[in-house]
Amino acid sequence: MTTADYGEKIPNNVDLREDRRLQRALESWQPNFLSWWESMGPTLPTEDVYLRTAVNVGREGWAHFGHVAMRDYRWGIFLAEPRHDRRIAFGEHKGEPVWQKVPGEYRAELQRLIVIQGDTEPASVEQQRNLGATAPSLYDLRNLFQVNVEEGRHLWAMVYLLHAYFGREGREEAEELLHRNSGSEDAPRILGAFNEETPDWLSFFMFTYFTDRDGKYQLGTLKESGFDPLSRTCEFMLKEEAHHMFVGTTGIDRVVRRTVELMREHDTDDVIGHGGIPLRMIQKYLNFHYSVSLDLFGSETSTNVANYFTAGIKGRWSEERRSDDHRLTDDSIMVDAVVDGRIGQTEVAALVGLNTDLRREYIADCQSGVNRWNRILEEAGLPQRLRLPSVAFNRQVGAFAGIQATPDGEIIPQEEWDRRKGEWLPTEVDKTYVRSLMRPVYERGKIAAWIAPPRQGINGKPFDYDYVHLA
């Protein structure tokens, strides 16, 4: 078991003190990070928050809970335990020992993948920075801040790799990660979904369910990498990412549960007059966040991803559990496409269809949450059901970027889309109504009227625990 060294200025389990040059470089980056946190992180003043902090990366538990002032949170650098016999599991280097240093021929590609992953981490903090002002409970406020500090730590994880393995270019890229800002006209974040607003808590729950789930799958492919430090970094990040998706899954659970309570209590589908969020509005928010997150997987076909796989730097989800030859040079896959004016599929080489392979894993995972929310409706005896829209709906990237499709997957003319999109995506009226519900509840044991309380608290604590001490 590797214990984090908390005696250092930067907590770590990578023996940072053994590389004084690297340690000095990261310590010089640290004030810039803290300055970014102060200017672009959570705006709600707090004294301290009941947070989870990494103390080791072993299986027997890796987190310590306690009240911490957020500025003093011990962001650090943690890699999962090494597997000393680990070998590359796929591509043309299959069976060779994993790399401890960056192979020169793949340097640019690895750096680009790390930068893109790193750019998403501070972006979500920026998107969520004002949400504390409208938290529905102290429990939810604590969960928001836990997500925020862990996204900050994930930024540290990528910055460590850039500094440790990519020289001057890596250090420059690490600086740029703090200079881009979500939604900025001059220097936006790299991926579109990370420039969208997160103006309310329904959006936050959808983001942590759908968009953080994309992060899970991207980290899962990088965990397979033949570059071992990246693999071990992502393996540990996945442990923290699980909490973010828990926040989204249970958050939407609780919104649906409260809506169902109001529907049954007042015998109406329209709970707006009773301070709830109607199912049709929840569906619109689901449609938006799901479709935007699908774009994060890129085009249905990609030669870049094929090259990443062949080179051994980015694998498939659960690569080592797959039963094929892990090279895919002679295999094919059916990918989503517009065929004869309709949404269908076409056959391509398996290597260029890897984005589709990953997106399908993601879609199946997303469906599990929808099934969970629908069980709440079913158990309440209600006929309504939530659902994932068509893979072609509201897409800006890939095969469906040039068309308009309904949630049922029917291709429609642009003018019909313009006329009807308010049926399927949140309108300004919808957004204004949801924002009108966002009134903070900071009293212990109390919660806003539009959401149900959680079934249990954090780390065995009750719902009415003092999770956050406000300044």
Automatic annotation (TrEMBL):
Transmembrane segments: none annotated. NCBIfam families: benzo_boxB. The lineage of its organism: Bacteria, Bacillati, Actinomycetota, Actinomycetes, Streptosporangiales. This is Benzoyl-CoA 2,3-epoxidase subunit BoxB. InterPro entries: Aromatic_CoA_ox/epox (IPR052703), Benzoyl_CoA_Oase_BoxB (IPR017635), Ferritin-like_SF (IPR009078), RNR-like (IPR012348). It comes from Actinoallomurus spadix.
